[in-house]
């Protein structure tokens, strides 16, 4: 068994032949061909078998279906009656449910075990090696402002993102799980692994380089698997979209067609509506309603827990991306939350004023 990827490595290597960073080019091509190093720093580690999380144990049918799909796509190998490795790490399975979409996603909890003499997989990966800088909505705003009113916008999304990148076969034993007494292991990057975003981002960086340098796409941004292209209103947005789709097809990088949008003057990117016709950014209606409902819920209470305050803070912090005066209020809430010791206890209380 060896590392595999759907990406056409030969064509990618050809497209990157003039890339100025030889180390970057070599790292990416070698990783796709032979598997990426997960960045685990420890050569010696003990076999450990962890119990699956409750979110998985309580949704047996869901987990079985998700595992079957992962195996069919080639992301996971198994089942095996016995571990195929003499030394291995079985991490807990969990199920993450989309907060608003209810979509189920299989998670390998690589931060377990906790408070144990046996380090978790993530504990064996240095955080500093995985640090990244992410694109901000302000970056898109800056480019749209430069291009002017009615700038053409298009977005693209890579399917199964992390899982188009393989692990080194020698590191497969680190990514095992157990389900219904059978053993499985991941051979592609996993959600929940500290190093996955950093490793995968090299693919996205390569796509941006190819689009800009080889095909003269002037303005392209990405956040991991989400891409945005912006064209001057006098330029052909359809041509840019055709170029991008050709690049993805030529490299055999799978694209989520239902998330491909444009060219248009108004679309949602990173959860924010970008409108080049009105030259404004705004929150989508469903997010506005969600935030208002949560605020009303808090206002009807005479006290709240730290957990509730942090939820409110999360909503308002997101809104302040486009409502700039709200940032000072968010700063106040951050300072307030830092004084709290407990997540569940009602430590913050208030009384209605005499006029209410």
TrEMBL record:
Coiled coil: none annotated. InterPro entries: DNA/RNA_pol_sf, Hepadnavirus_pol/RT, Rev_trsase/Diguanyl_cyclase, RT_dom. Pfam families: RVT_1. Residues 1-274 form the Reverse transcriptase domain. PROSITE patterns: RT_POL. PANTHER family: REVERSE TRANSCRIPTASE DOMAIN-CONTAINING PROTEIN. This is Reverse transcriptase domain-containing protein. It comes from Mytilus galloprovincialis (Mediterranean mussel). The lineage of its organism: Eukaryota, Metazoa, Spiralia, Lophotrochozoa, Mollusca.
């Amino acid at each position: 068994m060896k590392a595999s990827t759907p990406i056409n490595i030969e064509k990618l290597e050809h497209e990157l032949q003039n890339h100025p960073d030889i180390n970057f080019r070599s790292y990416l091509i070698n990783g796709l061909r032979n598997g990426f190093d997960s960045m685990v720093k420890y050569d010696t580690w003990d076999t450990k078998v962890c119990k699956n999380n409750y979110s998985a144990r309580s949704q047996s049918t869901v987990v079985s279906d998700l595992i079957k799909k992962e195996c069919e796509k080639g992301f996971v190998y198994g089942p095996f009656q016995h571990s195929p490795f003499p030394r291995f790490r079985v991490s807990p399975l969990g199920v993450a449910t989309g907060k608003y979409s209810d979509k189920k996603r299989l998670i390998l909890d690589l931060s377990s075990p906790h408070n144990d003499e046996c380090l978790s997989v993530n504990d064996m990966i240095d955080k500093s090696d995985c640090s990244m800088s992410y694109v901000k909505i302000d970056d898109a705003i800056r480019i749209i402002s430069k291009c002017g009113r009615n700038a053409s916008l298009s977005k693209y999304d890579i399917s199964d993102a992390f899982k188009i990148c393989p692990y080194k076969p020698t590191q497969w034993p680190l990514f095992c799980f157990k389900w219904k007494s059978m053993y499985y292991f991941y051979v592609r990057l996993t959600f929940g692994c500290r190093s996955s975003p950093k490793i995968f981002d090299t693919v996205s960086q390569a796509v941006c380089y190819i689009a800009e340098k080889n095909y003269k796409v002037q303005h392209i941004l990405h956040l991991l698997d989400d891409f945005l292209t912006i064209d001057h209103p006098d330029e052909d947005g359809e041509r840019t979209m055709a170029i991008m789709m050709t690049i993805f097809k030529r490299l055999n990088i799978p694209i989520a067609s239902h998330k491909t949008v444009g060219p248009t003057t108004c679309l949602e990117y990173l959860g924010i509506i970008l409108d080049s016709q009105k030259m404004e950014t705004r929150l989508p209606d469903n997010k506005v309603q969600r935030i208002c409902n949560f605020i009303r819920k808090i206002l009807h209470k005479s006290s709240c827990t730290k957990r509730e305050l942090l939820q409110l803070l999360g909503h308002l912090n997101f809104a302040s991306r486009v409502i700039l005066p709200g940032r000072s209020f968010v700063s106040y809430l951050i300072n307030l939350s830092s004084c709290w010791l407990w997540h569940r206890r009602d430590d913050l209380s208030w009384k209605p004023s005499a006029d209410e």
